[in-house]
Amino acid sequence: MMMNFVKLAVLAMVGTTLASPIAMPGKSLETRDDYCKDAIVRKEWRTLTNKQKKNYIEAVHCLHKKPAKAKSLAAGAVSRFDDFQGIHSKQTPSIHWVGHFAHWHRLMVAEYEEALRDECNYEGAQPYWDWLLDVESGKNMTEWEIFDPVTGFGGDGPFIEIKPEQNPLGIEYRTGGGCVKDGPFTEDKFKLNLGPTSDYSITNPHCLTRDFAPDIARTNLIRKVWDEVLAQPDYGSFARRLEGLPSWDMKNVHGGGHFGVGGVLGTIGDAFNSPGDPLFYLHHGNLDRLYYLWQKKDLANRLRDVSGPIQPFDYLNEKAGNVTLEFEINMAPLTGNIKLKDLMSTRGTKLCYKYDDN
Ligand SMILES: [Cu+2]
Description:
Elements: H1 2-14, E1 40-42, H2 50-65, H3 80-95, H4 101-120, H5 131-137, H6 214-220, H7 223-230, H8 235-243, H9 253-262, H10 280-296, H11 299-302, E2 328-330, E3 337-339, E4 353-355
Parallel strand pairs: 1-4
Antiparallel strand pairs: 2-3
The structure holds copper (II) ion.
GO molecular function, one term: metal ion binding
Signal peptide: 1-19
Keywords: Copper, Metal-binding, Signal
């Protein structure tokens, strides 16, 4: 409601022809959600046509063939696709269970989307994956459209036995673990160069793995948890509920996607190397959509509301303070420093996209 008044005020001030971005003197930009006028529209994967799906997958392959630009960051990176995995790997210890979790990943997905568009002629927006639809369908994971070998990302790997000490999160029912068997990202077509160890100075070509854990998906990717995230009264509690805990004591949608698909041995379940699975960007696209849906419930305030610890798990601020709008995310050398206030709006000064359902 509040936002409608703000919008009306803006329209009254500048007239009704808002063809180009107009800076509002005296009004800080982080409170605006309509700065960019030609926002691209992010859609749910299954709503794309087969041609659009093909174009997206081809653009990912294209990025995977372009030479790396950020070798100073991870010398083992070979491709532009690796660049993004490298920046996440390097910063993993400082971007999870912190106040800037949602903004950091929002920016990463947007930069990836921009690379697909600018460097690989992809004309669409970054799609997202609404896993609630799959879980609620009651179908087996192997039948979910997103894993289709022809129109999706391919499915599980073959089952690999593990020892209990390999499974600190106690993921009980797994069906895979090996190299993805079908679809566009099998070993012959697509190799990861960084990981699985933390030495990113070496190039280590290996396959994309998946290790479906259907019970993790089925119990975490549910509307009850989604609604709990949406019901949080402020950003700090929102971010905390979004990430949950690094255990299954609290069901959570972030871990549900990573470990439901990645299990114990799958790439997307590896906290450092998870962006090696192209599905990462659709999962985080959906989490970003959730962030926007939450913001929209009280947009005027939530375009300015940030908090949460600078240091991981430092919810009592014993080590450092909370992030503020002036807090800077550093994705160098992929992007320069960017303040949280420039990432609050998906249609602000830095970002320019929206979602199909809001
Ligand atoms: Cu992450």
